[in-house]
Specification:
The protein starts with a helix and ends with a helix. The protein has one domain. The chain is mainly alpha-helical. About 70% of the residues lie in helices and about 0% in strands. The chain has 13 helices and no strands. The radius of gyration is 23 Å and the shape is globular.
Length: about 300
Amino acid sequence: MNWWKRLYSIACLSQKRDLRSKAGKPNLSGMDIKVIDAKGESLGAYLRAVVANRHLMRTLALRDLKIRYAQTSLGLLWTVLKPLTGLAIFYVFFGLLVKVDTGDIPYPLFAFAGLSAWYFFAFLVSACGTSLMSAQDIIRYIYFPKLILPLSKVLAGLVEFSVNLLIMFFMLIWYGYWPGWSILALPLVILLNAFLGFTIGLWFSALTIRRRDFQHVIPYMLNVGMWVSPVFYPSTMIPQAYDFVLYANPIAGTLAGYRWALLGAEIPSVLYLISLIPLLILFVGGFWYFRKVEREMTDLV
């Protein structure tokens, strides 16, 4: 793998330097020396470094998928079992017992669209949030923009989400329920979903590397968030007095976008745009804090 080759090159270079130091002062004339100064690196230079290391991002994403499903018989099918199991439970409770009203949309379609989106979001928050902790050995020995690590989790998450999306299309065919022109908005909704999960995960990745306690906060936050967001129930069940909470919740607007794009549900209210303001603030603040922590990351891992 490319990152192992880079690690091996660094190890060999370190050995050569040790030998030279023992033999005497090395002759550095003619050598191309690159000084890495994280504090002086501009934003443009940093982003160019991220793009230049995109091959490492792909390698880490593939490595993550291979490790997760190594020596398993079902492989990526495990990705399908989680939302399908959740769908079965919620269908029995909310679809058969409580009989939640989802209008003309069959409850299995309504719930699976929400669960697929939520599990994608939850995976990104959890995986991006612990991406630095799980790559401490790489961080110690290889210099690269550490933003590559959470971004590689986004790529891995997109692969898993695409499997669930394929199941969703099979369910649409089974129910004879085909979306209209709203399906063209699906890529934008997926992008918003990924951006939301990545933004929150970016915060947790930087916070966790400083204080290990934050890695235990992630599961609790996701469990609470699943119930306060309209994942498996319609937003109409939320009392109007709490509409401000609904519209300020970025994942609520994303869920409404999925159901509109895939199921032809009611177009999301423009009031959901309110949630974009705190989301953008979170991203800018998270990116700034991540870069601040990155400058001292080798001392923290």
